[in-house]
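User: I'm writing a tutorial on reading structure tokens. Could you give me a worked example: one chain, its sequence, then its tokens, then a sentence or two explaining what the tokens reveal?
Assistant: Sure. Here is the example chain.
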Amino acid sequence: MSVDIDDPPLPPHLQLEVTSACNLRCVMCLVRYRPPVNKLAGAMRPDLFHRLLAAVPALSRMTLQGLGEPLLSPYLMEMVRAAVARGITVGFNTNATLLTRGRAEELVDSRVDWLHVSLDGAGAGVYEAVREGADFARVVANLAGLVHAKRAVPAGRSPVSPRGAADPTRATPAPPPPGGPG
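And here are its predicted structure tokens:
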């Protein structure tokens, strides 16, 4: 198959930074080293999102996150619903600290396809040392709320598939960042 370099094919998968704002300062993340960003100022506006959707007609998969926390975007649900309406597989990674029961129900109702949750430890000590500003018990409760919301929907109606990225091998906290406390 030859590709016309003047008119290359558009990608079937996009990863969009829907917000550059984050509510945590994780030890491994670049966000830690920049000034905090306001959730409105850091959010991709819906008009840009809809223009991107229209400009990539063959889009089949969309990941709505980058360095920011997607649940901080005031436009996230609109974006998810627009992607789902187009038949695009859509999901995002989250730290789940803002995944309230109401937000979980809204996500399940939106028919988001997947949700990855970052857990950097099997217990509160390690997790909270890595995810500065997070509360392990709250995240676990938020995930239980998501599971409850998903189970409350008739079978086959909610495709949301919660997945975790946990590192149970971390028995001790990660070292502090260079120049940080330690």
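What the tokens reveal: The longest strand covers residues 89-94. The domain at 13-166 is CATH 3.20.20.70 (TIM Barrel).
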